[in-house]
Design brief:
Layout: E1 14-21, E2 24-33, E3 52-56, E4 89-91, E5 96-97, E6 102-103, E7 115-117, E8 125-131, E9 134-139, E10 143-154, E11 160-174, E12 189-191, E13 194-199, E14 204-209, E15 212-215, H1 222-229, E16 237-244, E17 250-251, E18 256-261, E19 265-267, E20 288-290, E21 292-294, E22 299-304, E23 318-319, E24 323-330, E25 333-339, E26 344-350, E27 363-369, E28 374-379, E29 385-389, E30 392-397, E31 400-403, E32 414-415, E33 418-419, E34 423-428, E35 436-438, E36 440-445, E37 449-456, E38 461-463, E39 471-473, E40 477-478, E41 489-491, E42 498-500, E43 504-506, E44 509-513, E45 534-536, E46 539-545, E47 557-561, E48 564-566
Antiparallel strand pairs: 1-2, 1-3, 4-7, 5-6, 8-9, 9-10, 10-11, 12-13, 13-14, 14-15, 16-18, 16-24, 17-23, 18-22, 19-21, 20-22, 25-26, 26-27, 27-28, 29-30, 30-31, 32-33, 34-46, 35-45, 35-48, 36-44, 36-47, 37-40, 37-46, 38-39, 41-42, 43-44
Length: about 575
């Protein structure tokens, strides 16, 4: 018995027909309805084929069962209704009162003033937020507030007087400043009286508080947000991922295909996958029923609910093509949320969604701390949603919900089952006008930190050593990691004594010598076995947790320093 869902156009009866198809009886609801039996086909019952039609109005067709009613009717039946898309207008319905049983949420009376418009030059309305007796309206390029169920009267003394009024939404009052929420309402987050959001059109992260609008991206991060927010697309763009499959081979139904991705991607159930190339013929994927996450160079197996559509191959054979192209319509997102655990605003700038790639190059997640009025940390996770409930901070990825700051296990640096090291970057710039030779790196804190980068500033452009016309910039740097106290331990093959390469501990301070791996430049240094140190006005240093010492446990870093001498060259 087949079922179908049909629309009933203001009538409480419909016609069901029974037909025989290939000697199998099927009951199929007809596509037309009527207050009476007015089918377009013959309703007589033929003794030869036993097809018939019947008019039905009762649930399950039972005697005296509940009849289907006429459903919700429009408040006004216009003979030629015209749809309008008013991007700068709010509309509200009738009242709802659960105590008295009044529900007029489906009533939009054209006889009442039920719309409220704002200046369309500020773009479309993207976000509404009700706060106490105010309604905050976020347009692309402007923010307004309006009283709810009240009116403001301006007196002759330049003051304001609020009184109850008949208007549901009162007068719109703009906030000072030409800022809006662009097309990123997902960036909105609130904590108490402070609201945070992104204004991509102005390369800004904003805070709306009692003192008005503040551009918090100006606090030490103006250049960063100017560059990164410009990479977030406003409109849907087509993103293509290319995967390599095995050499074409005939396969059967119940298709499974192993593919290797050139870039990370998430293939989810229900996704439509299209192939545009090759092998013996051209093929199309159908809907995916089983998927997974692929990272660069790794393979996953995807299952589709039917084989390829064969276009140019021999009958009965289905082939896996060499190259499979996955195309998505994507839009950049700026996910925002309040971290109740650390009392900070978290913003995730995502150039592409997770379904395309979860690679670290596709996003930047960072947090703003009100206590120091600055941006304090970057994070190595790309969430779909971020939010706080009670005193816990959560994020989601796909269908999974993750609790952040979980201290029940040693899982620090573990995001979405992938562990990433924590790192801090310093700039050593004492006596900024003196050319220095940095000789050591040191820090105070826990065991388990290593230096992954120690670089000086760039020199001016110089000709290449081979005399070609091209110019290059030189930079002193340490290209090999300075190993942590534990990972740098080894045994001398001659003496059998334990030695360390990298950090050594002296008076509870970890110290390591610096050996330059940069290109030797003529006239800069004295050649020989004593070549060491990093030369420059300043040095940029990155210290990172290692991969073995108390993995996932707490590691402290109190300070970092260096020993240097004034350069003689």
């Amino acid at each position: 018995m087949a079922s179908a869902r049909i629309e009933v156009d203001f009538f409480n009866s419909y016609i069901i027909r029974k037909v025989r198809c290939q000697n199998v009886a099927q009951t199929i609801p007809n596509v037309f309805t009527s207050p009476g039996i007015t089918p377009t086909q013959d309703i007589s019952i033929s003794s030869s084929n036993r097809n018939f039609y019947i008019e039905e109005a009762r649930i399950r067709g039972g005697f005296n069962n509940t009849a289907t009613d006429q459903g919700v009717r429009a408040y006004l039946d216009e003979p030629f209704p015209l749809q309008q898309r008013r991007i700068n207008t709010l509309i509200y319905s009738g009242i709802y009162n659960s105590r008295t049983g009044i529900n007029r949420t489906n009533v939009f009376s054209v006889g009442d003033a039920i719309t409220k418009s704002i200046d369309p030059s500020f773009g479309s309305i993207q976000k509404l937020y009700a706060e106490d007796t105010n309604l905050l309206v976020f347009q692309e390029n402007k923010i307004h507030r309006a009283l709810i169920d009240k009116d403001t009267i301006y007196t002759t003394e330049s003051g304001t007087q609020t009184q109850a009024g008949a208007a549901v939404i009162g007068q719109f009052v703009p906030y000072k400043g030409e800022y809006g929420i662009s097309k990123n309402p997902e960036s909105f987050a609130i904590y108490n009286y402070r609201k945070y959001f992104a204004d991509k059109n102005r390369n800004a992260i904003m805070r709306l508080s009692n003192d008005g609008l503040t551009e918090i991206s100006m606090y030490g991060m103006q250049d960063y947000f100017r560059d990164e927010l410009a990479l977030i697309s406003d409109d849907n763009t087509t993103t293509t991922i290319v995967a390599n499959a095995p050499t074409p081979n005939p396969i059967s139904n119940g298709l499974q295909v192993v593919v290797t991705f050139a870039s990370g991607a998430t293939i989810t159930p229900g996704m439509v996958l299209n192939n545009i190339t090759s092998g013996p013929g051209a093929y199309d994927f159908k809907y995916v029923t089983q998927g997974g996450i692929a990272t660069p160079g790794n393979s996953i197996t995807i299952t589709v609910n039917e084989p390829f559509v064969e276009i140019a191959a021999s009958p009965g054979n289905y082939y896996v093509p060499n190259i499979i192209t996955f195309s998505y319509r994507t839009k950049g997102k700026i996910k925002g949320g309040w971290d109740i655990h650390n009392k900070s605003y978290v913003a995730s700038l995502q150039k592409t969604p997770n379904k395309v790639t979860s690679l670290q190059s596709s996003y930047n997640t960072l947090s703003f701390d009100e206590k120091i009025n600055g941006w304090v940390s970057f994070y190595t996770y790309k969430p779909d949603q971020i939010f706080s409930i009670v005193n816990n901070f959560y994020s989601t990825l796909g269908r999974e919900v993750y609790l952040q700051y979980d201290n029940t296990l040693n899982n620090r640096g573990l995001f979405y089952d992938i562990r990433e090291p924590s790192n801090v970057t310093f700039i050593f710039n004492e006596q900024s006008s003196v050319v220095k030779n940095f000789q050591t790196a040191s820090y105070e804190g826990s065991n388990g930190w290593e230096v992954t980068s120690f670089k000086s500033g760039f020199t001016g452009f110089d000709p290449k050593p081979d005399g070609s016309a091209a110019y290059i910039q030189d930079q002193d740097k340490v290209e090999v990691n300075i190993k942590s106290y534990d990972e740098g331990l080894y045994t001398d093959t001659n003496t059998g004594q334990p030695l360390r390469v990298g950090f050594n501990r002296k008076e509870n301070r970890y110290v390591a010598n610096l050996i330059s791996n940069s290109r030797i430049r003529s006239g800069e240094i004295i050649f020989g076995s004593q070549i060491s140190g990093i030369k420059g006005y300043f040095a940029t240093v990155t210290i990172e947790t290692d991969e073995t010492t108390q993995l996932g446990g707490p590691k402290e870093l109190w300070s970092a320093g260096t020993k240097y001498v004034m350069s003689s060259y």
